[in-house]
Amino acid sequence: MHDPEACHPARLLSSTVHVGLNLVFLVPGATGGTETYARELIPALVAAAPGVRFTAFVNREAEAAGGPWTELIPAIRVSVRARHRLEWVGGEHLLLPRLAAHAGVDVVHSLANTGPARGRFARVVTIHDLHFRLVPEAHLGILGLGMRVLVPLAARRSQRIIVPAASTRDDLERLLGIPPGRIDVVPEGFGTTQRAAPLPEPVVRARVSAGERPIVLSVSAKRPHKNLARLLEALALIPAERRPLLVVPGYPTPYEKLLRRRAEQLRLLDDVRLLGWIAPEELEGLYAAAGCVVCASLHEGFGLPVLEAMARGVPVACSARGALAEVAGQAALTFDPESPDEIAAAVERLLRDDRTAQRLRAAGLEQAARYQWAATAAGTLASYERALGRVPDEHQSRA
Predict the structure, then answer these.
(1) Which end of the chain has the least Cβ crowding within 10 Å, N or C?
(2) How far does Cα 366 stand from its chain's mean position?
(3) 328-366, pLDDT tens digit by residue?
(4) Listed residue (286, 282, 277, 284) closest to 244, CA to CA
């Protein structure tokens, strides 16, 4: 939880400090939660420390797409294409240190799990999760191999590590042997703050052929650790006459073929919509039309999908594990993510028990309001100070 008394970075961070933001990883529209983190954190940092100099280091894709990394602060191009993994790694470890040194950067903050192992500057890295260790099936092939090497390297070579949840801090200590005194728990905000106007419900329902059926929404990348196969099994347990329509927007992966095959085996092809990326106004329309949101992940480093739903007043059912339970608190129904029976029971309760649904709508709005990007910026700026040796570790923010 954010603690407004934990630090006062606007008073701590000197205006002479030059902060570099490592966005070499960022492919707008294809990077998921780490893109939300960058889009929301940068404006919050600028607002919290208006005298501090920030510079973004961006790849070709992020430079071309634009965003707060080019609109609010100066940007320096690292001439690589992040869609090509080897280019991204080379840009981060070879080109970025030289560019940052030439720019006179004091501290480089890498926003997405990996970062340069060397350079004439202090290093801070945000490690969002350790999926590559906890759910290795989520990272296969060269990506999985790279994460197993690059994330521990960044953790060892950085002066400070930012994590979004206490459970992620504990994972770093247990799995990578990182002393907790080098880790700052800095929860994120409740998700996207700039929202599109939702499409009208009749339009949204027509687009997914929902008719009058209840809609269960699960905003999720099609990756194994998101546990969508068990969510399908849970849906199949609900009798056909009262079965809701499950809508799953999120970026596609090769794993989606297996999910479609599983839906066919379960005779759910008429009950599931596996969508790719959709327009913001359509997503907002789905939130408005949904009877509930379900997050069945086996593991998450934080829990943005939970907070995104709560901030919109949608009742939530989610996994009882790790950061999802930590973020949800008492404002969601929780279940064992390995039990389709428990998942199905939670969905049915939210759709059929109006009193529970209304209670969780109110509790969710209150819970989401506790997670503000201004507080994320405050904790992040304080972490920069620690990396520069200006704040004792005992003042680190606590979850």
Answers:
(1) N
(2) 20
(3) 999 999 999 999 999 999 999 999 999 999 999 999 999
(4) 286
Q: In what order do the strands lie in the sheet with 292-295?
A: 272-274, 245-248, 215-217, 292-295, 316-319, 333-335
Residue among 324, 283, 282 at smallest CA distance from 307: 324
Contacts of 174 by beta carbon, 8 Å cutoff, 6+ apart = none
Same fold, 9-189+372-395 and 201-368: yes
Tokens 């194994």 found at? 224
Q: What's the burial of 10, exposed, middle or buried (CB within 10 Å: 0-12/13-18/19+)? A: middle
Residue 118 exposed, middle or buried by CB count within 10 Å (0-12, 13-18, 19+) = exposed
pLDDT of residue 30: 75
Q: Do the Cβ atoms of 134 and 171 come closer than 8 Å?
A: yes
Rounded-to-5 percentages of helix, strand, coil across the chain: 50, 15, 40
172-203 pLDDT, tens digit per residue, is 999 999 999 999 999 999 877 778 899 999 99
Task: Enumerate residues 6+ apart whose C-beta is below 8 A from 66.
Answer: none
**């809508």: which residue's tokens?**
247
Please provide the CATH number assigned to the domain covering 201-368: 3.40.50.2000
- The class level of CATH for 9-189+372-395 reads alpha beta
Give CA–CA dist 362/174, Å, rounded.
36
* CA 145 to chain centroid: 21
- Residue 236, token pair as written in the block: 């199949």
**Of 156, 188, 201, the residue nearest 44 (C-alpha):** 188
Tens-digit pLDDT profile for residues 278-311: 999 999 999 999 999 999 999 888 988 899 999 9
CA–CA separation, 106 and 245 (whole Å): 51
The ranges assigned to domains in the chain are 9-189+372-395, 201-368
pLDDT of residue 118: 93
E strands within 187-271? 215-217, 245-248
Q: So what's the pLDDT on residue 399?
A: 36
